[in-house]
Amino acid sequence: MTNMIDALRARFPALQQQVNGQPLAYLDNAATTQKPDTVIQALLDYYRQDNANVHRAVHTLAGRATRDYEGARDRIAQFINAASRENVIFTRGTTEAINLVAYSWARHQLGEGDEILITELEHHSNIVPWQLICKETGAVLKAAPVKDSGELDMAALQGLLSSRTKLVAIGDASNAIGTINPVAEIITLAHKVGARVLVDAAQAMAHHSLDVQALDADFVAFSAHKMYGPTGFGVLYGKTEVLEQAQPWQGGGDMIETVTLEESTWNALPYRFEAGTPNIADAIATGAAVDFMQSLDLNAVAEHEQRLLQQATEGLNAVDGLRIIGTAPKKAAIVSFVMDTAHPQDIGTLLDENGIAVRTGHHCAMPLMARFDVPGTVRASFAAYNTAEEVERLIDSVHRIARLFA
Ligand code: PMP
């Protein structure tokens, strides 16, 4: 395993640096992962050789750009086992994908008295769009509570599901405290009452394979930058039947079939929802990220990350005055904690002085922070390239910080 991880790490240029005189221990992967050589190379190759706008021109560069851009769509469709490439809509990321569903689907499908069900675990991007849509449509937003362990209260969730529920929007894993939700079970329950389901898979993609058809999700949103790909790029997967119900939300080039000065008709899926010149380079680089992920043994990666999580959990639990927020039995490789004596921001700053990158704050999950009555936490999150030595450095440094503030 160590040799395999050494070889893997060698492919990530950003991991080779020192920060504040120490080798970088990058433990902020839930925010964004580092990028392997092939993803960076794909970006360079596009801008150095193939740069042209896609879909329209007949010249050679435009042909290459279009081939690679649409090739990325095919690779992503295959990676998530979408029934067709028409189900894969390119967006700026998870946030835009969820907003696309909110504005082009929910806004037209929901009315007075309908309900959208989320959970207390959600990222702001899976809360705020629904608040906006509820204001416009008169629909009501409900949230299933979490238990003290950070697990979803499934009995309460079931109690909130009814024939009024038109959409259940739920994260696969909490970015703030790591809880993995029983998404497949929730989809089955939601479909029984006739609700559609959107899965926020932002935290899922780098850690396990996702088969959208087996899951039977209606919509799935994710970001490339959390799965070793570029920033500002992501995907909305939608079943054809729900995408056909949705109305275009941004008008412009590429999304139309015909335009007169009076009216327009729409392009086929998925282009109907992709107005304007797209993010060509980042789409192609996301194709490279998918190739990278497919070159990994994802089961072995998941086991490795879970070992790091266990090591971190045990080590941090032994620190005086430290409390881990989120102790669900099924967690993504994320450990979130607070200390009696030190503020998360101070802990984060001191860890950075030791070359250790973690995230501090509310992690775009303010309702969840309120639920646990903390202003924020320190969060360490692990990826395929992290090592037991890095986790040991984290634990040692936190022990030292605890002594400093005692
Ligand atoms: N949902 C979850 C669970 C996330 O972790 C994130 C990113 N922190 C998002 C949504 C938003 O992703 P993006 O900022 O890439 O749109």
What's the layout of helices and strands?
Layout: H1 2-9, E1 18-19, E2 22-23, E3 25-26, H2 37-50, H3 60-79, E4 88-91, H4 94-109, E5 115-119, H5 128-137, E6 140-144, H6 154-160, E7 165-171, H7 183-192, E8 196-200, H8 212-215, E9 219-223, E10 234-238, H9 240-245, E11 256-259, E12 264-266, H10 280-295, H11 298-317, E13 322-325, E14 334-339, H12 344-353, E15 356-357, E16 359-361, H13 366-371, E17 377-381, H14 388-405
Parallel strand pairs: 3-15, 5-6, 5-7, 7-8, 8-9
Antiparallel strand pairs: 1-2, 4-10, 9-10, 11-12, 13-14, 14-17, 16-17
The structure holds 4'-deoxy-4'-aminopyridoxal-5'-phosphate (PMP).
The site of 4'-deoxy-4'-aminopyridoxal-5'-phosphate (PMP) has 14 residues, from α4.
| Whole-angstrom Rg | 22 Å
Report the average pLDDT across residues.
Answer: 97
Taken as a percent bin, the fraction of beta residues is 15-25%
Bound molecules: 4'-deoxy-4'-aminopyridoxal-5'-phosphate
CATH superfamily of the largest domain: Type I PLP-dependent aspartate aminotransferase-like (Major domain)
Query: How would a textbook summarize the main sheet?
Result: 7 strands, mixed
3D architecture notes:
- There is one protein chain.
- The protein has helices at 2-9, 37-50, 60-79, 94-109, 128-137, 154-160, 183-192, 212-215, 240-245, 280-295, 298-317, 344-353, 366-371, 388-405; strands spanning 18-19, 22-23, 25-26, 88-91, 115-119, 140-144, 165-171, 196-200, 219-223, 234-238, 256-259, 264-266, 322-325, 334-339, 356-357, 359-361, 377-381.
- With 406 residues, the protein is α/β, with parallel strands linked by helices.
- The chain folds into 2 domains: 2-30 and 297-404, Aspartate Aminotransferase, domain 1, CATH 3.90.1150.10; 41-294, Aspartate Aminotransferase, domain 2 (3-Layer(aba) Sandwich).
- Strands 4-10-9-8-7-5-6 form a 7-stranded mixed sheet, with helices on both faces.
- Strand 7, helix 7 and strand 8 form a beta-alpha-beta unit.
- Helix 2 packs antiparallel against helix 10 and helix 4 (94-109) packs parallel to helix 5 (128-137).
- The chain starts with a helix and ends with a helix.
- The model has no long low-confidence stretch (mean pLDDT 97).
- The structure holds 4'-deoxy-4'-aminopyridoxal-5'-phosphate (PMP).
- Residues 93-95, 123, 125-126, 171, 175, 200, 202-203, 223, 234, 364 line the site of 4'-deoxy-4'-aminopyridoxal-5'-phosphate (PMP).
